[in-house]
Design a protein that fits this description.
heterodimer, A: mainly alpha, Fumarate Reductase Cytochrome B subunit, two-stranded antiparallel sheet, 2 strands, B: Alpha-Beta Plaits, two-stranded antiparallel ribbon
């Protein structure tokens, strides 16, 4: 059984994510998971989970350190890589019929059936959904989290609202992360996706097939001609 | 359930000597803290020793409520302020460490050894009673002197009260007594005298008050309630929404299996294989 496709450098490859995007993605993975498991200890009231971090106080400390690192890395990456963020948002705004077509056929593709999917931009319909939901939830988590950290300096109603916002945003973000983690790695239909974020490049033929519009605009003959 | 015991505070007898405040500090070994109002402000503009609220080192205090009325003139309403020991306490529900327990005789007990200082209880409490103590990173609040009651003694505040404004005993007996007292007060110059704590928050609070005027004249919430934000969080988000996570994990696991089974079938039928895609 194959977990993820083999990385091949003997075939033409194209860049999908630059170094900044990859560093931000994986550092966020670490801080998010640390925050998630330390937070789940309290959410699930799980003593065994807290024990891994040296008890609830230890978990609280790890949660806060990870939260600070998360906030700092995300804000820094957004400032340094503002161009990339804008390009990302612009791609999300291209949500169209092809994305609706993707989302409608996706459940079958998810289970492993072969389906014909309309041409996609840099981010397909599902990735667009993830790109909207997860960052929104993470921002809600960060804002409500910083409020919860110092409950006495805020208006009490805001603190009370922050508790359920923090919990709900955690749940939705984690649901997306569960799907994203699987779809970005072990799902056979996702193919090269993992290498795009790990090594930065994907096979050109895969990119052309899975993200046709993006490939043609960025690496296609027309784009090449324009560059020259 | 054991017969409920509690304190009855009679505001018509309180002289604001603050003996309860001192006895409480003594019994619970809490340091004296000087705050702004000792030095004439800028406090809350009253003679309160604590700016009108308890703090992490002060589990009870006497509130000075000044009211002005065209008929009665200026009155000082004294109120002993501390944890109300609600009969259905929200702090017990929100506490993720189960540090709070409702003792069978009525006290809402907070175990500092279990507390991790998350302060969920502070914002959930309709009276804002649990206070965060930085030096121990825990919450403190009135314990109704459970350790004294266990030994057959009355709480420190009740024991020390010189004018007999605080009385400790069985709640049903005290309630009867309060009803009689309110009847007496109503025909003797306090027509708005009332009992507080019998039905508040639906199931009432363990603590009982005889007030010589309406609750608002004592700075008490007339209709205390658990905030909607807290109810939504505790009754909906905490128990139900979390199930979305195992559903997402389960869906991924199912897809992991089915997509490989179907993929292998396709491979066998079409006889071509290249990576996981196409």
């Amino acid at each position: 059984m194959q977990w993820i496709p083999e990385y091949r450098d003997d075939v033409p490859r194209v860049e999908r994510f630059n170094a900044l995007a990859r560093v931000t993605h994986w550092s966020h993975t670490v801080t998010f998971l640390l925050c998630l498991f330390t937070g789940l200890a309290l959410f699930l009231r799980a003593d065994w989970l807290a024990a891994i971090f040296g008890g609830f106080r230890g978990a609280g400390l790890v949660h806060r350190i990870a939260a600070v690192v998360m906030t700092v890395t995300i804000l820094t990456a957004m400032v340094v890589g503002i161009k990339g963020v804008i390009a990302w948002i612009k791609d999300l705004l291209r949500f169209g019929l092809n994305d609706i077509g993707f989302l409608m056929k996706f459940p079958l593709e998810f289970l492993g059936f072969k389906v014909k999917i309309p041409p996609q931009t840099r981010f397909n319909g599902g990735e667009k959904g993830n790109s909207i939901v997860t960052p929104t939830m993470v921002f809600l988590l960060m804002i409500s989290g910083w409020i919860i950290w110092w409950p006495s300096i805020w208006w009490p109603g805001l603190v009370r609202a922050s508790y359920w916002i923090h919990d709900l945003a955690m749940i939705f973000a984690t649901v997306m992360v569960c799907m994203h983690g699987y779809l970005g790695s072990f799902h056979p239909g996702s193919g090269e996706s993992f290498w795009g974020m790990w090594k930065g490049t994907v096979r050109a033929d895969w990119a052309q097939h899975h993200h046709t519009i993006w490939y043609e605009e960025t690496y296609g003959d027309k784009a090449k001609a324009e560059a020259e | 359930m054991a017969r409920q015991m509690t304190n009855l505070f009679d505001s018509s007898k309180c002289t604001a000597c603050r003996g309860c405040f001192t006895a409480c500090k003594d019994s619970n070994q809490m340091p004296a803290l000087f705050d702004r109002s000792y030095f004439g402000g800028p406090g809350n503009g009253t003679y309160d020793s604590k700016d009108g609220d308890t703090d992490a080192e002060t589990l009870t205090m006497i509130r000075f409520n000044e009211t002005e009325d065209p008929v009665d003139g200026v009155r000082w309403n004294f109120l002993k302020w501390q944890c109300m020991h609600c009969n259905d306490p929200i702090c017990v529900k929100v506490c993720p460490k189960s540090a709070y327990t409702k003792l069978d005789w009525g006290a809402t007990f907070h175990d500092e050894a279990k507390c991790i200082g998350c302060q969920y209880c502070t914002t959930a409490c309709p009276f804002g009673i649990p206070k965060y103590r930085k030096r121990t990173d825990t919450i403190t609040k009135c314990t109704l002197c459970y350790e004294r009651v266990a030994e057959g003694l009355s709480p420190a505040c009740a024991r020390t009260c010189a004018p007999g404004a605080i009385k400790f005993g069985y709640r049903d007996e005290l309630l009867e007594e309060a009803r009689e007292r309110v009847k007496f007060l109503r025909v003797n110059g306090f027509p708005r005298a009332t009992i507080y704590g019998e039905t508040e928050l639906g199931s009432g609070t363990n603590k009982l008050y005889i007030l010589t005027d309406t609750p608002d004249k004592f700075g008490l919430p007339v209709k205390p309630q658990i905030e909607g934000n807290t109810i939504f969080w505790q009754n909906w988000v905490q128990p139900y929404f979390g199930w979305l996570i195992p559903i997402a994990l389960g869906a991924s696991a199912i897809s992991f299996v089915t997509s490989r089974v179907i993929g292998n079938k396709n491979k066998a039928m079409e006889g071509h294989a290249e990576g996981g895609h196409e």
